Each structure stands twice: as C-alpha cells, then as structure tokens.
Amino acid sequence: VFSTKEYSPDELEAFGKDEDNIFEQEGGIETSARPEAGFFVRWGAIITLLGAALVYAVYTFEGDQQFYIITGGTVFLGLLFLLNALFVRDDANARNFLSDVLGDLTTMPSVMKRLAVVQFFSWFGLFIMWIYTTAAVALQAFGWDGGDTSTKAFQDAGDWVGVMFAVQNGVAAIYAFFIASIARKVGTRSLHAFNLLAGAVGFVGYHLFGSQYGLLIPMIGLGMAWGSILALPYAILADALPVRKMGIYMGIFNFFIVLPQILVGGTMGPILRTFENNLAPVVGGVPLLAVLFGAASFCLAAFAMSFVKVDRAS
Prior knowledge:
The protein is 75% helix and 0% strand. By secondary structure, the protein is mainly alpha-helical. It has two domains: 37-106; 110-305, Growth Hormone, Chain: A, CATH 1.20.1250.20. Helix 5 packs antiparallel against helix 6 (152-186) and helix 5 (110-141) packs across helix 11. The longest helix is centred in the middle third of the chain and has 35 residues, at 152-186. The model has no long low-confidence stretch (mean pLDDT 87).
C-alpha cells in the first residue's frame, strides 16, 4: 500500500476528461436521465404491495419462515423507492446517498444490466457450492447416511472438502495467468460463457465420481469458473463505464453478489425440502440435488452471457 502511487486530484480530473472524450468519439454508452418522482411513486407502490402480498401468502399458507427474508426485503425496497420520491419530487437530480444509489440503479447502462444477470446466477451457484459441498461429498465418497453430522464420515468429508477447495483455488490462480491472452483470441464474452459451462460440468462431476480423489477432477472446471467470475465480468464492465461513474457502478454491481447469497439462504432450504421425498432420492440425496441446482444456475449464467454486448476490447 505504501509503495502504491496515488494520483493527484488534477491527474484524476485529466483521466476523467480523457475517458469522456473516448466515449464521446465511440458513441458513448447508453445512459438515461434520472427518473422523476412519479417513477419512484409508481414502482415503489407496486413493489411494496407485491412484497406485502407475498408476506401475507407466506403467513396464510404457513410457509417456511425463511421466505420472510425475501418478502420482507421486497417491502423494504418498495418503501425506499417511496421515500426517494420525496427527495426527488422537486429535483430529479437531488444529491443524497439514497437518491444517488437508486438513481444510478435505475439508469444502469444496458451492458451492466445484462452482466448483472450473469453475476447473479454465477454467485447463486457459488453459494450453493459453499453450503452443500461438504454434505454432497460425505454422501458420495465417505458413506455418510445423511443423518448425524457429528459422525466421523461427515467430519472426514469436511476435511477433504478443504483439499478440494484448495485444488479449485490453485486451478483459478494458475488459470489467471492465461485468461487475458485467451480472451484476446476468442473474446471475453465467449471465454466467460465457456468457463461458466466448465463450472456446470464440475457440479455434475459430483455425481460422476464416487471416490474422494476422483472428486478432485470436478474442481478443475469449478476452478476455471471461479477464476473467470472474479475477473472477466469486471474487465467487461470497467471497459464499458466512464471513469467518473466507476465507483458507484462497481458498488451497485456488487449488489448482485449479495442478492444471490440472501436468496440461497432464504429459499434453497425450503425448495430442497419440497423435493426431499421424491426427486432427491433419485439423484442420491438432498445435497447432491442441490449441486444440480448449482449446475443449472451456472448454465443460466452462461446463457445470459450471450446477451452481453461487448463493444470495446476488454
């Protein structure tokens, strides 16, 4: 940190002007004026009523309490929209934290909106992996019966998962040295989609290998996906945004890491319990069904990547 050069305010301003000139010459990015108060009133009311209806449905049908995380969050978002309408009713460009975030959130460039979908499904799959891998490995390779997690079989599986994740991170670290040169040859969009599909194959590999050493093989595909998720979406996004908006847009982009975490934590348990007595036994158990959801999520992310338009070389 101490050895890192810090740019002066004048240098940063010059960088911003140069970047703006480049975007003007190349047609710029798709941007919109900030919405007026009516937009936030309309959508705030819709989101709040939708969230309230979902809360009522969960309560009436005695749904899993975890669903209150999602439904309550929806109501809260709607209320934030309504609150922001008060701030922008006289000036659509009102300057405060809430107005800045919601204003930029609702006027994201199209490339960022499409990458946000990719990011959402990518991290949805990753959180499934981190939550369910130990149980899946215990079932598949260590003879765990799916019951008591204090048994030696489950504990041994947990130790081995640490080795598996070390392999995954090692693959990601090595792959990082080559990912830029490969992207220049085949294109960033195509490479990221391929890496996500490799990760999906890795998830499926949990079902194909029944030994602890065999389960190291799927981590190659998951390592490729992991390295790609940490690099390529940001490379595309950084190349598509003006420098003066980089900070706020990168912050908003990271919402789509947090949202999947909340959704996985709030919905996967109830969803998997729904299939506990029918579909789960067919695939070997609830944890092994969960990793198939992870594979499907990565496939959706790869498909969404096909809609991302990369105008400039990343």
